[in-house]
Amino acid sequence: MTPPTTPTTPATTTGISAVTGAIGSAHTRVEGRDKVTGAARYAGEIPFAELAHGWLVLSTVARGRIRSVEDSPVLAMPGVLTVLHHGNAPRVDTDYVGMVGRPNPVLGIFQHDRVPFVGWPVALVVAETSEQAREAAEALVVRYDEEPHDVAFFAGRSDAYTPESNPMVQAETEKGDVEAQLDASAVVVDEEYTTPEEHHNPMEPHAATARWDGGRLDVIDSNQGSTWVATELAMLFSLDPASVRVRSEHVGGGFGSKGLSPHQVAAVMATTILHRPVRVVLTRRQMFSLVGFRSPTAQRMRLGADADGRLRAFDHQALSLTSTVHEFVESSAVLGRVMYDADAHRTFHRLVRLDVPTPAWMRAPGEAPGSFALESALDELAEKCGMDPIALRARNEPETGPVSGLPFSSRNVLACFEEGARRFGWAERDPRPGLRREGRWLLGTGTAAATYPSGAGPSTAAVTAEQDGSFTVRINAADIGTGARTAMVLVAADALKVGPDRIRVRLADSDLGPAMFAGGSMGTRSWAWAVTIAADELREKLALGGGIPPEGITARSNTTEAIGALAKKERHSFGAQFAEVAVDVTTGEVRVRRLLGIYAAGTIVNPLTARSQLIGGMTWGLSMALHEEAIRDQESGSHVGADLAGYHFAAHADVPLIEADWVDDPVPDDPIAIKGIGEIGVVGVAAAIANAVWHATGVRHRDLPIRPDRVLRAADEARRRATEGAPSA
Amino acid sequence: MREFGYERAFDVPGAVALLGAAPEARFLGGGTNLIDLMKAGVERPALLIDVRELPLDGVEFTHDGGLRIGATVTNSDLAAHPEVRRHYPALAQAVLAGASGQLRNMATVGGNLLQRTRCGYFTDLSKPCNKRAPGSGCPALTGEHHNHAILGASEHCVATHPSDMAVALAAFDAVISYETADGPGELPIAEFYRPVGDTPHIETSLPPGALITGVTLPPAPVAAHSRYRKVRERASYAFAIGSIAAALDVQDGVVRDVRLAFGAVASRPWRARAAERVLIGGPASAEAYAAAADAELEAAEALPENGYKVTLTRNLVVAVLTELTEEAIR
Amino acid sequence: MAPAPSSTSSAITLNINGEKYTLPVDHRTTLLDALREHLDLTGTKKGCDQGQCGACTVLLDGRRAVSCLQLAVAAEGRAITTIEGVADGERLHPVQQAFLDLDGYQCGYCTPGQICSALAVIEEHAAGWPSAVTDDVRPEAGVPALTAEEIRERMSGNLCRCGAYVSIVQAVARVAEAAEADAGASAEAEVKEAAA
């Protein structure tokens, strides 16, 4: 196979409607200079006089009760100011419903003596310096009455149950008779796929500094939404929401992990008692039990099709875990509700409760592990049907939502495949596996589809025309590396029909008013909506003429109604992923040589940062395919190697030239027409890579990550089967 | 981390005397492993004796044409040294395969030899570990062990030695020099690392209070034609799951000299002498290489999850020796 | 001379970005914590505190090192360069400019470490150091070109969770190519000068 050339065509961008055309043209980050000079300050880096340092102590048993916290010797250690634990901590109220539902009980730290998993917070040691706090925390003796625990996650657990559906996840959908349609199918794929426990591991560990300032609680935090954190801290501590201020100027990555966590609660408790600023920073190891993770999954895919690939039966069953104290569903089976129709169609989720921390949203929750199973199974079906995998997807392209029956606001997934296939050189691909070799490497290519919902959350914004001719945009957005700050400049510039250099953006401060958090690929879409409405209104005000007073002229917006008024449709981003891999079956090494992702994601605001975000997502997909896996020790119930040497994610050397681009994707009925791009880059990549590994070696890998030992074992088994099977075949 | 004193030593006798006076003291080289273990609470010294400025940072020829490498030579300087690269290329490659550019700039030769295992049970104080807390047990036997030892392990410990550098040193018969209050001494690398047995916490044969002063590589013409290959679960910046240092001298299709050592399979770098014996004087063929690997790996005892290392190591022997053979022919 | 062994803290002087800072330190204090907690030089980041991510990379005597595993007391007497000392006043270093122009970051938290590491990668390459992906490490083989593969291997001690590797490598390559072109030009100029 000749390596196809990849022309570097410029990005195609839709939605350049405004006069200035700021949207759709590349802009470097407005905070870029601060980031490359080290001037950008993150949450743990703002100095305060009299700052005290808190260090969390976590349980070392997986289930039981705290018998005693022996704090006396520790209180006598140098610099130690206090030791908070269930015997002396202030009360907090966890009986409320917040922006994402009921709170995770882990926020109710030090409220009782029960320990539901290893790594549950049992004490906070506060000292003058971080070294003293750390040493004292390590010296603190906590005694437990231990109880037997169960942390074993595997397919077929008899105690698995169907969770209640909630506004975020519908547990089950079903139409038609799956069994009957499977029986009637000419071709059937029935396979199990697993994905392991995965952790967000943003580079910046979670950090919060809390203090009381003039009767108000002031928290400098690293989070994905200051509205979210401020409102829940107010509820936890029974405070007037107006008396809580949370700021989060720069955030060193979040990926779903930076909402409410015990460190913020601990910092607020300690500052309330000590009457001085207290900072609590999580260690890398502590992050493995305190900030959520992606549940492992065991998924069964059953696909039945006619000989020509048309799906008759679609059945996606997804098992994941949750803790004993809170329910979280990794919604792996939702993809099929959007992607493929069939005569009989069933998707459902099951949960098992174990003595582990509660999982949480992690970049592309549901879709990331779900797409590995679904898009791998599609590839297996294509193989069985003797069809090209893209042609198989085209054959099953639905007219309307397969489950909802609603129209798509826009789809364009086939346009993504078409453009991707052209640029990747898919047409020259020989579909037969195990044929291409380069030295010790077997080569193969694979593809997969991608999708992620395009939602929006109510937000408020204010735009002010200043006397000097500049404009100030106030929106409580969070820039966790997405480029939100820059995107809001561009959105405001176009809405106000002025150059971006006249726009100043203030964000990440709960005093700016309520807004959506950076999550669910909804941030930019939600905030841009609010900023656009406020800017439009300001332009109308300014059109009336007259001078600008010293305080400027301000227009405000609230998108609650506008979002509610949007017609009910299937609104999603789509994409096509392509991968080329090299596999050495004698060592088990897998290297990704190329990745290409083409997306249909509405209006692309800033092509420079959008491309970065999409490539970042694809890098996550690569990392998920080959590296990521947290290993839990059954005996102790805790992780083995809970650090960045034990939990591998892709390093520079693992990541080849990755290309991301997009096709035109107008959304006619959508006033904002921006879709999310933060998560779709992850979706489908692991399947595309696994499909490419099959194409290279002839062996299917249905368990992630595709580790060297698994490749070696699979190669051994394949060889053994070939030699044993040969005589009788 | 417990509080500790800090002293900087400027000469070898001074460093050794400082240690002798304070039994809970440890020598501090690059600190890349020791400081990490102190943060984890695995090491709790009362005094650190900084030996980085000792005059042990040279690499020079010995009178017989070998190389003498000072204990405080950084990993980076070792790997960049022209004579190391010329005469022992597998050693340079092994060092370059380890850690990262930053860590190699800090880490010293002496410290690298004394690295502790990266077994996840060893570094976690909340778990039992016979190496860290003798008699507490080895949870890896029934727990997570997919990157644990297949050779020379015992029921008390199945941890592996993490060094890449030491694998190449083992292949080249390095001799480790040390200094104690009673004077200097030497240990061949084969004796430097002790068998695991029932004392996994005692890792080396260094006498108490000894300071490693250097490593001597005897002259070995075969070493000029050598290679280090490392397999890991990430393309870089990860510990090995299998590695091999190999040197080969082939003439007229016959193996005249060969050196083989394996990494990530045992509590120490594993010199494959059984394989070498099979190879010497025999044909330079893939079949012979496979047979030699089998001879060495016959003693392998795999746990449920690490049996792949037998296949991996065997395949590495065949692949790397074949590459070296093809290069020799060219 | 060093303090008495019983002492667990020392007054030290650190040479950082060409300036001298005198401060008392607990011996347990790492260079990273001294920079961040004591000297308000927070550009150097703490990602793991275990030498496993590279976010805390600084230059010690011109060589890159992870400051989280470097005791502050042991850094006395060494020239320390942090991200705050990389730009020439208001003028960004070409590596910083390339990161900014090519979007070689997202959240920015690993960025100071990536930039300090990139500076060293270019120096190490210029000094003729081979890497783990260098085909032939023997000195006779010469210095390998700083290809994307070489840059990736040499930068691998700096993890980035946002997944900005692709543009980081492009940024480093841009500066390395410019530096090589410059070196070529000055070598040519030297030859011409010598000939004249």
From TrEMBL, chain A:
- Any one Gene Ontology molecular-function term assigned to this protein's record: oxidoreductase activity
Q: What is the lineage of its organism?
A: Bacteria, Bacillati, Actinomycetota, Actinomycetes, Kitasatosporales
**UniProt-listed Pfam families:** Ald_Xan_dh_C (PF01315), MoCoBD_1 (PF02738), MoCoBD_2 (PF20256)
The name of this protein is Oxidoreductase
Q: Note the InterPro entries from the entry.
A: Ald_Oxase/Xan_DH_a/b (IPR000674), Ald_Oxase/Xan_DH_a/b_sf (IPR036856), Ald_Oxase/xanthine_DH-like (IPR016208), AldOxase/xan_DH_MoCoBD1 (IPR008274), AldOxase/xan_DH_MoCoBD2 (IPR046867), AldOxase/xan_DH_Mopterin-bd_sf (IPR037165)
Give the matching SUPFAM superfamilies.
CO dehydrogenase molybdoprotein N-domain-like, Molybdenum cofactor-binding domain
Entry keyword Oxidoreductase:
yes
Protein species of origin:
Streptomyces scopuliridis RB72
Residue stretches making up the Aldehyde oxidase/xanthine dehydrogenase a/b hammerhead domain = 37-148
SMART domains (UniProt xref): Ald_Xan_dh_C
Keywords, A to Z? Molybdenum, Oxidoreductase
TrEMBL record, chain B:
> What would you give as a GO molecular function for this chain, any one?
FAD binding
Q: Which UniProt keywords apply?
A: Oxidoreductase
Q: Where is the FAD-binding PCMH-type domain?
A: 1-222
Enumerate the Pfam families for this protein: CO_deh_flav_C, FAD_binding_5
Highest rank taxon of the organism: Bacteria
Q: What is this protein called?
A: Oxidoreductase
Species source reads: Streptomyces scopuliridis RB72
Automatic annotation (TrEMBL), chain C:
Name the species this protein comes from: Streptomyces scopuliridis RB72
Q: Does the keyword Coiled coil apply?
A: no
* PANTHER family documented for this protein: OXIDOREDUCTASE WITH IRON-SULFUR SUBUNIT, OXIDOREDUCTASE, IRON-SULPHUR BINDING SUBUNIT-RELATED-RELATED
Record bears the keyword Iron-sulfur: yes
InterPro entries with a match to the protein in the record: 2Fe-2S-bd, 2Fe-2S-bd_dom_sf, 2Fe-2S_ferredoxin-like_sf, 2Fe-2S_ferredoxin-type, 2Fe2S_fd_BS, Aldehyde_Oxdr_Iron-Sulfur, Beta-grasp_dom_sf
The lineage's top-level taxon is: Bacteria
Q: Name one GO molecular function term.
A: oxidoreductase activity, acting on the aldehyde or oxo group of donors
Q: Write the record's keywords in alphabetical order, separated by commas.
A: 2Fe-2S, Iron, Iron-sulfur, Metal-binding, Oxidoreductase
What metabolic or biological pathway is this protein involved in? Alkaloid degradation; nicotine degradation
Q: Where is the 2Fe-2S ferredoxin-type domain?
A: 10-86
Taking the record's annotation, the residue ranges forming a coiled coil are none
Protein name per Swiss-Prot or TrEMBL: Oxidoreductase
